């Protein structure tokens, strides 16, 4: 998938565990794990906002685009 999730990197930079982020955001730790692995098809903007608020970052710090084949 060309969208790469860097949530694990941001958690490490902030010295925060998935469990703590899940509590701050109000979603399950399992959903945080799915986000970290990139196994989700989408994320709600309010969830993304809550993650950015908790990690004090921008959406671009969490997501990047890496095309897997040229067009």
UniProtKB/TrEMBL annotation:
Superkingdom as given in the UniProt entry: Bacteria
Any one GO molecular function term: DNA binding
InterPro entries (alphabetical): Cro/C1-type_HTH, Lambda_DNA-bd_dom_sf
HTH cro/C1-type domain segment(s): 13-62
Gene3D superfamilies hit by this protein: lambda repressor-like DNA-binding domains
PANTHER family: DNA-BINDING PROTEIN (PTHR37301:SF1), DNA-BINDING PROTEIN-RELATED (PTHR37301)
Record-given protein name: Helix-turn-helix transcriptional regulator
Organism lineage string: Bacteria, Pseudomonadati, Pseudomonadota, Betaproteobacteria, Burkholderiales
